[in-house]
Amino acid sequence: MSQARTGAWWRQAHNDLELAELASANGFHAQGCFFASRAAEKALKGAIVELGLEPPHPHGLGPLVALLAEEGLDASALNPLPLPALSRMTVSSRYTLDDTPPSELFDAADSEQALSPAAAVLAWVEHLDQPPL
Description:
By secondary structure, the protein is mostly helical. The protein has one domain (about 5-130): Nucleotidyltransferases  domain 2 (Four Helix Bundle (Hemerythrin (Met), subunit A)), CATH 1.20.120. About 65% of the residues lie in helices and about 0% in strands. The chain has helices at about 5-25, 30-50, 60-70, 85-90, 110-130. The longest helix is centred in the first third of the chain and has 23 residues, at about 5-25. The radius of gyration is 15 Å and the shape is globular.
């Protein structure tokens, strides 16, 4: 896989996280949660691409972390993060359930619960490219 393709995943992950922060700061919490989840997904998929693999198409974060661990990366730093909850936000922040739109289901606390682990995933992936001290 080309470094250009890996870089494209990485730049898009950052762009999605920036949009998540912007949306959340302006009261668009459902959208902020959605893009935070997508930022984490794209960062993990970029790491998979960097390993020379084709990233899987499902959006769940757990299987992506598991794949990276199977490939020999120490992903234990991601274990304490609420990645299943962040993955669930992918759907619940986009689609109306019953008679309540997502825009009425998410608040500032939800945004923080999405932004913090997403940023931690991006930081973890970025750390993979750092030479050891």
